Amino acid sequence: MIRRSQLYVPSISEKMIRKSIELKADSIVFDLEDAVPPEDKEKARELLVKLINELEWGKRELCVRMNSLQLVDAYRDIVTISRIDKISCIVVPKAEGDLSFLHKATGKDLIPLIETGKGLIRVEDIVRSEGVVGVSYGIADLSLSVGGDYNFYEKNEFVKTYVVTTAKAYDVDPIDKVYFDLKNVDGFRRECEEAKKLGFVGKQVIHPTQVEIANQVFSPTAEEIEWARRVIEAYDNAKREGRGAIRLDDKLVDYVHYKIAKRILEFQNL
């Protein structure tokens, strides 16, 4: 499963749910949390059951962002999600501890969101939970949680690095945060490029125009693919000769580079 673009869609909007079929997002997150007013939660659940079962979605990943586990609505969400076979994943807002129980109860994959101070200091416990396949974070909620300034936290490299390194340590997908300035296309692309350099595999997006950019940035470039092919060929030849490290373009290439090259080509073939 690749998650270059993970698109949020309000579960209360039939028009937007139907429109999302036409978009090329790798993953779609039907939102029952922030995008749905409290008085419309039950209506949104009913609409979600109807449309997800009715429509054809292809091979893309379908997720639901449930309400916070601290709220009664969360448990109503769990019952609804469990009834929809086409939903393979639950996005868990404000995750703050072991989520294994949720995977065991629903059989669904989990993508927790780190959005509180408690969640940030417990991110390792969270990503180690049974069923977790990815992790992301929310800067607006996190900055509110700790009484900080949103604009400052939006650029906070510690949070980004902590999330991505913990995710990679436990072999789950780190997915970069939402970018709210919909008019700033260059800013969105720049943030995607910076996230890729840090090790994120994709971006959570909130508008169709962001999908194509995220897919482009988080896909291997032609240069990366060519490099990967050359590394694999050279390293395989060296292995047959009993060598574990080689020189390619005046640079040392060893098993770490070989694994990176393999991952690039595997990604291309998905």
From TrEMBL:
<dbReference type="InterPro" id="IPR011206">
    <property type="entry name" value="Citrate_lyase_beta/mcl1/mcl2"/>
</dbReference>
<keyword id="KW-0460">Magnesium</keyword>
<dbReference type="GO" id="GO:0000287">
    <property type="term" value="F:magnesium ion binding"/>
</dbReference>
<dbReference type="GO" id="GO:0006107">
    <property type="term" value="P:oxaloacetate metabolic process"/>
</dbReference>
<dbReference type="GO" id="GO:0016829">
    <property type="term" value="F:lyase activity"/>
</dbReference>
<keyword id="KW-0479">Metal-binding</keyword>
<dbReference type="InterPro" id="IPR005000">
    <property type="entry name" value="Aldolase/citrate-lyase_domain"/>
</dbReference>
<dbReference type="InterPro" id="IPR040442">
    <property type="entry name" value="Pyrv_kinase-like_dom_sf"/>
</dbReference>
<dbReference type="Pfam" id="PF03328">
    <property type="entry name" value="HpcH_HpaI"/>
</dbReference>
<feature type="domain" description="HpcH/HpaI aldolase/citrate lyase">
    <location>
        <begin position="4"/>
        <end position="208"/>
    </location>
</feature>
<dbReference type="InterPro" id="IPR015813">
    <property type="entry name" value="Pyrv/PenolPyrv_kinase-like_dom"/>
</dbReference>
<protein>
    <submittedName>
        <fullName>Citryl-CoA lyase beta subunit-like protein</fullName>
    </submittedName>
</protein>
<keyword id="KW-0456">Lyase</keyword>
